[in-house]
Amino acid sequence: MNRFTSLRSSLAVGLLAIASVLGAQIDRSQAPAAGPAPKISIGSYDMTELDNGLTLIVVENHRLPLVSWSLTLDTDPVFEGRKAGYVDFAGNLMTTGTATRTKSEIDEAVDFIGARLSTGPTGAFATSLSKHTDALLEVFADVILHPSYPEAELEKARKQALSGLQANTTDPGSISSNMRAKVLFGDKHPYGEVETEESIEAIAREDLVYYHQTYFRPNVAYLVVVGDITAEEAQTKVQQHFGAWERAAVENRYQPVPARPEGNQVCFADLPGAVQSVVQLTHVVDLKPGHPDAIAASVMNSILGGGAFSGRLMQNLREDKAFTYGARSSLSTDPVMGRFTAFANVRNEVTDSAVVEFLHEIKRMASEPVDAASLETTLNYMTGSFARSLEQPETVARFALNTARYELPEDYYATYLEKLNAVTAEDVQRMAEKYLRPDNMYITVVGNRDEVAEGLVRFDSDGEIAFYDPFGNPARALDPAPEGMTAADVFNLYYTARGGAEKLEALKGVRMEGNMEPAPGMAFSLVRETIYGKATRQEVSMMGAPVMSEVVTTQAGQTTSQGATETMEADQLREAQQDLYPAYLLHLDELGLSAELVGIDGAKSSPELVVELTGATGTTELRFDLMTSLLVSETSQREGPMGNVAVTVKYAEYEAVKGIQFPMVAEQSAGGQTMPMRFEKIELNPKLDATLFEVN
Amino acid sequence: MRNFTFLSAGLLAATAWAQPVAAQVEFEEFDLKNGLHVILHEDHSTPIVAVTVMYHVGSKNENPERTGMAHFFEHLLFEGSEHIARGEFDGYVEGAGGVLNANTTQDRTFYYELLPSNQLELGLWLESERMLHARVDGEGIETQREVVKEEKRQRYDNQPYGQMMPTVFETAYTEHPYQWTPIGSLDHLNAAAYEEFMDFYKTFYVPNNAVLSIAGDIDPKAAKKLIKAYFQDIPRGTKDIPRPDITEPIRTTEVRDTVYGKDALPMIVQAYPVPAQGTPDYYAVEMLNQVLSGGESSRLNRRVVDEEQLALFCGAFNFGLEDPGLTFAYALASMGVDPQNVEAAMNEEVEKMRNEVISERELQKLKNQMEAQLIRSQRSMASIAESLANYHVYFGDANLINTEIERYLAVTPDDIRTAAETYYAPEKRVTLYFLQSPNPESAEQ
Fold first, then answer.
1. Range of the domain at A95
2. N or C: which end of chain B has fewer CB atoms below 10 A?
3. Which residue of A has its CA nearest to B130?
4. ipTM of the complex
């Protein structure tokens, strides 16, 4: 086949193809043989350095009339501390104003020529048709060199970021990456920082100016130009726009080395109502770009689950077990600290089984050598990926950038395929032994705590799952309750604090009116009427039109929602009948409930007594203020059409109505979102129309 | 030996840049006797080839009692064939250094392999096996049923606002099969019997309902011979191919509804019925959306997000389909902002489009954006192969890859205003609010 290597690959393929077709009828029962291997040419680039230290890399490619400009800062990650988020703000807000242009002028200039422009904390990117290069470059240079950080734009960005945080509290992906960052790197490492409301509020304009002036310097920057432009043209234009950019020393930063967990640690973030678990098994890996092990380690990861559909995780968890839509793994090199992560989204009931399979596949990488066929498939797949990546001219530019930035040998990419194809089964096993830590991992899960968490205890080395909130902060555990105290004691204290059990039990009925607003201007009103011992009715309406209603009597109960009426099942009815008692916690036996005082939550600003109430429909957690004895919140876990749903109601602003304390505010939350309701009017022993309580 | 021999970086493939700078995509096309349409595009820049097959079947061809079937089939057809054992399909492609995948829309199902160019024949073998005698068996059906359920959970049920798309289509269409989306109903898939799967395969997965589109480092002459060898003996389909002929009635009163879920911020979504893709008015609608939503300086973003800060994001996009589709205008309200205020601002911007023509400068901006978009779409062999197939399947004219731009550039400011007036009328649209759920339980104590 050697004689073909000097021919154009297409011709070689053509000759072979003709030969095979003319030679014989095709044989469908076998995969056809490949033609002779085509040449892979990486292509060339041009690298120069300006006097101010800016490194310019140019890759010419005239297939399409496009040019792209990409600036990369080679700086160490910055620890932000109590202002987490300011580095991103400094990068993103560069396009919101310069010394000579407003945001809308920048936007208009870019959009008018159909170009794209974006900036970030470690660089900037722009692309356009080559005929618009000069117009684009002018704006590109301006935002990099002269951002003005207008106060008004900072306030806009702050408002957006705060809304974004709110939106992310129901996004399992965001919750998972927050938790992973925190557990892997801790809160003293730049990779472990998570933005919070407080940190976003703390960002000031000076922080952005400081960041830009300190880090956006030519001597730590690479400018990569790709496309329909010559190296000479690019050099002239870059000299013209960036020649006056002033150099300044940029210090390297020390990064603490994150600790590994002793044994495996299960980390769980509750997402009430979730129908899938976002599962990740992860640990840090000290593997720098260009390290001699990097290629063999990437082969090892690829066999396990790095992209190919034929990876072991995908074949096992999807094609064999059908636990998931996709299971993969990644092993990243990083100049500071890389990481390994195996991940999948799996349905609730197989979450623990999925972890078993993950652990099995990860351990198997080190315990047995990979078979020759799998290794061959993987090396071919990676060879093909490398060749395909060369379709985009940006790839050559990336190779040049990495070579310079990570001080790789000059021929690192030129000899990449040779090194790749020299990887053996022994190498793969050695890499697994060296870099995978199946006994020192974090197993992070975002999901439905009630349905999933218990099954994961067995994977945790100390048997205690660590729970986290949506921002990766620990959710505090409970302290023990005072010796000898019971749930009944807590209930007695509660009713005494409200004015006394006797007084409550003497009530004949109550009528309550309230309002709630899921968003300003979207008002719902609620009316609730109860004849104790007989019936209760509540109705939610919007601008006078009923949205939903519920009627419960001693015999039956029904709910009506958007015109559809449903009759309550026995268990559901029994639970709803709690409302027929003015002090239902004194009648647990009649209601089929049991109560247990589980402890004190000291993490709250005012400590709370926590009682768990269990009945046929599930559990409800009641929390009472330790000082006032009043009910602070209740959280019910209930089966809904989408799986388990947790509903929390917080009570506040207790006020006396004829000597009995009622909370005037009830704030409901589900899925981490809250909606306040305020009672406007509470009437005791009212006259009520009995016909309103009829159940059809 | 691996798939590629490697030459050092010093050896530049000078031939790669031989083609002139132009957006002109050369191709040739022909039909086999069994009705399979073939399109070939030759480009030797990189030694790779995209082998793709587009079947003209999507969720709109489904029986209303069996929604989700087309997408389910896309999963099933990776299970193997008479000559390819279960699970081997991926291994062949990946072992040859390639990648493969597929996707399903309302109108078509698209399969592709991206391979080193010396593996063209492998791609043809795999795709011809899939067309001739795919493996449709109980084990595959059971496994993929569970996998598709996980896909639905991951992409819809466990995603913030995941029900948005299905709900909009369900509300906007009352007659046309676009009322369900490709993911369909899991109950329907559970109910489907084995014979129904076979019937679906024999009806839609036939050469006369498919386009084989190949782009990359090929010799067209040799490729043609191979294509004939692998495909010409596949029998033409004998069943009628159901194509819905349903005209969605024009709405005369706006439909407004509120959907309650658990996500915190209110999402506002409006859907305007728009003409089928490829019709003259469709291009005016596309340009109209570009004015509203193309870039940071577009009208909706500038007003709603930037100037008035009512929303985290706000925009519009065209969901162009073979039959009349929808334009979506949407916004995610910022914390504490009344969604009605967001909607009012969106409506005002749409009203302006209906009453005033855009300026000459805005028109020039649109043209510049369209030109750049067209050229960016030719960055990879995979996207060229897909575009050629699309143009043939929908319009019977693959050369639209070169000429469609003229249709965009022919749109005048008055065409845009007229399109806004005609199609973006408030009474024709659907407006949905996605709000956090109120719950009667909040009154319990």
1. 46-242
2. N
3. A28
4. 0.87
